[in-house]
Amino acid sequence: MGTRVTQSKTSHPVPQSTFPTGHWEHIATYLKEGLIIIDRDKKIAFFNAAAESLTGVAQTQVYGATYNLVFRDNSWVTSLVNRAQNSGNSRTAEEGDLRDRNQCVIPVRITCSPIFDKDNCSLGFVLVLHDLSYQKELEEEKLRDERLAALRILAAGLAHEIKNPLAGMRG
């Protein structure tokens, strides 16, 4: 068992997995991260359940639709994909707010990476959507705690300043 090794065109050994290839789509379907595959015709070829949850768009509505149509309410996402297309081989990433059809907002980080076949021909792009809601909540909680700490220091200093003149008046 284990991994077989074959020779590639560049004569470097390339390990081949013994993991059944038919299971990759099943695994991608259940990832916690949103996963969207855009084919070379700019159409949605794969859209997992997490992507559906983050975008608020049903999987059945997006298959075969262009990414411009799917993200029409989120122009920053289409700009991200366009930048990835224009940059060639490089990956692009950006943080922003995804707005669904009901204008609900979810903070996300999206990474867009090109997909190439073995001959280095473009097959399209993969978008990975990471929900930042929890991180944003933690940041807000930290800011609230910092403000409360500053307020406590201010209140303690104020109480001290009030107490000093009163103690002098008592004699």
Any overview of this molecule?
The chain is an alpha+beta fold. It is 42% helix and 28% strand. The chain is built from 6 helices and 7 strands; from the N terminus they run E-E-H-E-E-H-H-H-H-E-E-E-H. It has helices at 24-29, 49-55, 59-62, 67-70, 75-87, 133-170, and strands spanning 4-7, 13-16, 34-39, 44-47, 92-99, 105-116, 122-131. The strands form 2 sheets. It has a 5-stranded antiparallel β-sheet with strand order 4-3-7-6-5, sandwiched between helices. It is elongated.
Per-chain topology:
Elements: E1 4-7, E2 13-16, H1 24-29, E3 34-39, E4 44-47, H2 49-55, H3 59-62, H4 67-70, H5 75-87, E5 92-99, E6 105-116, E7 122-131, H6 133-170
Global morphology = elongated
Average predicted local confidence, pLDDT: 80
Helix content: 40-55%
What composes the largest sheet? 5 strands, antiparallel
**Largest sheet, order of strands side by side?**
4-3-7-6-5
- How much is the radius of gyration in Å? 26 Å
* Poorly predicted spans: 3-10
Structural class by sheet pairing and helices: alpha+beta
Number of helices: 6
Q: Strand fraction band?
A: 25-35%
List its traits:
171 residues; alpha+beta; five-stranded antiparallel β-sheet; two-stranded antiparallel ribbon; 6 helices; 7 strands; 42% helix
Summarize the structure.
This protein has 6 helices and 7 strands; from the N terminus they run E-E-H-E-E-H-H-H-H-E-E-E-H. It has 171 residues and is α+β, with helices and mostly antiparallel strands.
